[in-house]
Amino acid sequence: MEEILFALWVVAIIGPLAWSWYHKASIAMAMTLSLLFGYIVQLIWGWTLESSQLTELYLRVVMIPALVEDGHIHTLITSGFAHSWNDPLHVLGNIIIIALVGIPLEERLGRSKWLISYMIGLLGGSLAWTIANGGSFTPALGASGAAFGILGSYLCGWPDDEVYFPMILIRKWPVQFIALFYFGFEIFKAWQVYGLSEVSHVAHIAHFGGFILAYATLPILKKGIEWEGEIELTEIIEENPFEGVDELVKRLIEEGDEKETRQAWLEEIADRAKCPVCDGKLHLKKMRIRCESESSHVVWP
């Protein structure tokens, strides 16, 4: 029974990510589903297994510094997909950040680079916890390091972007406000724990590790990705990366003084043309034409 439930958890984690990658869908959305489905399976663990069996399953995936040092390297990754079955707020908090902040970040980075940045945040949190608690048998689990990594990446790359987020009100907030609020709150909570010796079951060090490492590495991932601010007509030149739409581009230049007209012609070009890298479909996002399957392939104009 234990093996079946463990296999079910693995499928629940990998399934949405594999489906998304194959169908070239949003990997950030798939990650939220992966964490949600994995948590549902862990609820089944908690409801059906005895305490000793449940402990045995969790020991396969949670990160324990002493065991990591003893060769359980895989738990640096697997711990980021596991949450305590009786703590729904933990997984909910992570999913909110990954969905509401992670999906817009994916539009900036593209699917591949988003996934790399996510894993950097996850590893940053895991390594920070392991180093800070060397030799300890205190376990850590959850996607918080990766979620804070998303905040760190977005803050570094596009701090002025605004995304919908539930902070007092559900409205658009600047990314820099969301990220710095979370980071500042973590500093305060860490001070309470480490400075005032209060009891806490939250791995604040892991949050810092994910945030800082993702922030530091984002400039490397961002290379080759253009800023997508509002464009002027003077930025649009007849030379373009597409085939068979030169006449449309000419009409765009001639008639695109008004924003609405410019958008209409850009949409027409996106519908008619193909991605020059993968020959895939194009779409218009924030007045820029880009590839649907991999946003880093083309950004024009």
Short structural description:
The protein has 301 residues and is mainly alpha-helical. Helices cover 61% and strands 7% of the residues.
Report on this model:
The protein is mainly alpha-helical. The protein has two domains: 2-222, Up-down Bundle (Rhomboid-like fold); 233-300, no CATH class. It is built from 13 helices and five strands. A three-stranded antiparallel beta sheet has the order 3-4-5, covered by helices on one side. It is elongated, with a radius of gyration of 22 Å. Mean pLDDT is 86; it is low at 196-201.
Oligomeric state of the chains in view: single chain
Output the radius of gyration: 22 Å
H/E order of the elements?
HHHHHHHHHEEHHHHEEE
**Count of individual beta strands:** 5
Lateral strand order in the biggest sheet: 3-4-5
CATH superfamily of the largest domain: Rhomboid-like
By DSSP (H or I, 4+ residues per run), the number of helices equals: 13
CATH topology of the largest domain: Rhomboid-like fold
Q: Enumerate the spans where pLDDT stays under 50 for 5 or more consecutive residues.
A: 196-201
Give helix % range: 55-70%
The percent range for strand residues is 5-15%
Topology:
Blueprint: H1 2-23, H2 27-48, H3 51-61, H4 65-69, H5 75-78, H6 88-100, H7 102-109, H8 111-132, H9 144-157, E1 162-167, E2 169-174, H10 175-195, H11 204-222, H12 246-255, H13 259-272, E3 282-285, E4 288-291, E5 299-300
Antiparallel strand pairs: 1-2, 3-4, 4-5
List key phrases describing it.
2 domains; about 300 residues; two-stranded antiparallel ribbon; Rhomboid-like fold; mainly alpha; three-stranded antiparallel sheet
